[in-house]
Amino acid sequence: MRIASLAAALCLMALPALASQQSSRTPGPHRDTAALCRAECLATAASRPGGAAANAPQACAVRCDAAVSYLRSQQAPGTAEATGRGAVMQPVAIARPARPAATHGVIYGARTPSAAFGMVVGEADRLAAHRSAERACTTAGPGCRVLAEFTEACGAVAQGYKRSQWALFISSDPNSYVITSLSAGAGPRQDQAERQALAECRSRDPQANCRVVAAACAGQRG
Predict the structure, then answer these.
(1) Which stretch is the leader sequence (predicted)?
(2) 207 shares a domain with 124
(3) Which of 2, 33, 99, 218 is deepest in the core (most CB within 10 A)?
C-alpha cells in the first residue's frame, strides 16, 4: 500500500511539469482537455496493483496528445482556431456534404498460451477504445498488449493452435491443443478482416492451425 501511495504521489508531482512541457504544443481551447486527460490517466495508473510505472507520465502524455490531435482534426474550417485570426475573420457559411465521423478499432491480446483478447470496433473516442479493449483482455489473461489499431469498420481475431503433447488428437476440449499465437485483422467488410487475421496467423507459423475466434463490425448488434 505504501509503495502504491508513493507511486501515485510521484505521478501527481510529475503532472505539473509534464503539463508545462506539453502546453506549448497544445493550442488554447484544448489545453484543459489535455490536462484533464493526463490527470485521469496518471490517477488510473497509480491505482493499479503495484502503483504506477516509471514511464506512466510519458505514456499518458502520448495517449492524451493523440486524443487532442483527434479533437483538433475535427475543428471546422473557418473557426477562430482554424484561421488563427480570432474574431477578425467572419466565417462564411458554405454548404458541405455530410462526412461520417471517423471511428476507432483496437484489438489487445494476452501472452500465449492464454487465449484472452479484447476487441472494440466503431468507437468514436480513441482512448475509450483502448481502455475498453485492454480491460476486456486483462480480465481474462495476463500480459495484454496492442495487436492492432485501425479505423476500418470491421475487425477480427484469429488463433494459431497446435495439438497438445498430452493429446492423441485435437478436439473441442481445450486440453487437447495449445494456443501458439493471436493475430488481428481489419477491413471495410467482415470477410476481409477475417482473411487478414488468418493470413497474419499463417505467416507467424505455417505449421500451426488457424481459426477466426471473433469478428465484428461497427454498428453490428449482437
Answers:
(1) 1-19
(2) yes
(3) 218
Asked if 128 and 209 sit in the same domain, the reply is yes
pLDDT of residue 144: 94
If one counts the domains in the chain, the total is: 2
Q: Please give the Cα distance from 141 to 133 (Å, whole number).
A: 12
**Residue 75, number of CB atoms within 10 A of its CB:** 14
For the entire predicted model, the pTM comes to 0.54
Identify whether 129 is part of a domain. yes
pLDDT tens-digit series, residues 157-182: 999 999 888 888 888 877 788 999 99
**CA-CA distance, 114 to 179, in Å (whole number)?**
7
Task: Tell me: pLDDT of 78 over 60.
Answer: no
CA-based diameter of the chain, in Å? Answer: 78
Note whether residue 82 is domain-resident. Answer: no
13 is in which domain, residue-wise? Answer: 2-72
